[in-house]
């Protein structure tokens, strides 16, 4: 074998070794959690009327993130809603949540939720005050509690024969989760605008734009386009 051929074989061998050794290093490069993500959210509820004051609610949620490229949050659950009176509804709920906020991060948790919602009208304005008390149970991390308060104001409107209700809402979050050695506290705010539409007796929809501001979570600042559909059996 001449010296030129030997040098070529040696060069190729060295190159292959470098390429092979570089693969694990590339795969293990840590991912910097992003501060912002553009997402699409959809929630679907199937409501089974039990009687005039009680409903069984089946809940399914999927959220597309990483700039709408892949699912990052999937939820399924069941709620039992009962109307205390025309102005107050209470709904204990169970949710299983699996989410992947960024590559390399997977969180599975069980959520035990108490939903207490008050509603009243003033002239043609409707005010809805939703209070969520969530106990989040995780296998690999300590459990914690989240309180969420959301105030929504809507008003009926019409364009031609199309009737709907434009709304604006704001939600604040408080958490007992310990992050960086201290409680998260009041850590998140969501403001949203959109429309509510009762299409038929059995089909209701919401279409909205939401912006989340959160200096703790990653990603925390999230612009969202979303929908909610409710089917009543």
Report on this model:
The protein is mainly beta and 233 residues long. The protein folds into 2 domains: 1-29; 37-232, Porin (Beta Barrel). It is 11% helix and 66% strand. The chain is built from 1 helix and 12 strands. The chain has an 11-stranded mixed β-barrel. The termini are far apart. Residues 5-10 and 12-28 have low confidence and may be disordered.
Give the arrangement of secondary structure elements.
Layout: H1 3-27, E1 39-49, E2 54-65, E3 70-85, E4 88-99, E5 107-122, E6 125-138, E7 144-154, E8 157-159, E9 162-179, E10 182-198, E11 203-214, E12 222-232
Parallel strand pairs: 1-12
Antiparallel strand pairs: 1-2, 2-3, 3-4, 4-5, 5-6, 6-7, 7-9, 8-9, 9-10, 10-11, 11-12
Features:
1 helix; 12 strands; 2 domains; Porin
Summarize, please.
The protein is mostly beta strands and 233 residues long. Helices cover 11% and strands 66% of the residues.
Number of helices: 1
Structural class: mainly beta
Number of strands: 12
Under CATH, the topology of the largest domain can be stated as Porin
Helical fraction: 10-25%
Unreliable stretches (pLDDT < 50, length at least 5) are 5-10, 12-28
Question: What general outline do the C-alpha atoms trace?
Answer: globular
* Overall CATH class of the largest domain: Mainly Beta
How large is the share of residues in beta strands? over 45%
Rounded mean pLDDT is 90
Instruction: Give the tally of structural domains.
Output: 2
């Amino acid at each position: 074998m001449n010296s030129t051929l030997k040098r070529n074989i040696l060069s190729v061998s060295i190159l292959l070794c470098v390429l092979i050794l570089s693969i694990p290093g590339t795969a293990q490069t840590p991912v910097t959690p992003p501060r912002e993500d553009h997402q699409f959210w959809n929630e679907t509820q199937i409501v089974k009327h039990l009687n005039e004051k009680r409903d069984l609610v089946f809940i399914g949620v999927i959220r597309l993130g990483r700039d709408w490229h892949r699912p990052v949050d999937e939820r399924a659950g069941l709620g039992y809603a009962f109307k205390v009176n025309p102005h107050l509804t209470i709904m204990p709920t169970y949710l299983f949540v699996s989410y992947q906020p960024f590559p390399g991060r997977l969180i599975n948790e069980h959520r035990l939720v108490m939903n207490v919602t008050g509603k009243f009208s003033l002239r043609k304005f409707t005010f809805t005050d939703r209070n969520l008390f969530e106990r989040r149970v995780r296998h690999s991390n300590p459990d914690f509690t989240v309180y969420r308060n959301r105030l929504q104001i809507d008003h009926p409107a019409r364009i031609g024969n199309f009737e709907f209700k434009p709304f604006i809402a704001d939600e604040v979050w408080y958490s007992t989760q310990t992050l960086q050695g201290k409680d998260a506290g009041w850590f998140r705010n969501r403001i949203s605008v959109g429309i509510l539409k009762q299409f038929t007796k059995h089909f209701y929809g919401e279409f909205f734009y939401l912006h989340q501001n959160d200096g703790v979570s990653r990603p925390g600042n999230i612009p969202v386009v979303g929908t909610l559909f409710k089917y009543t059996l």
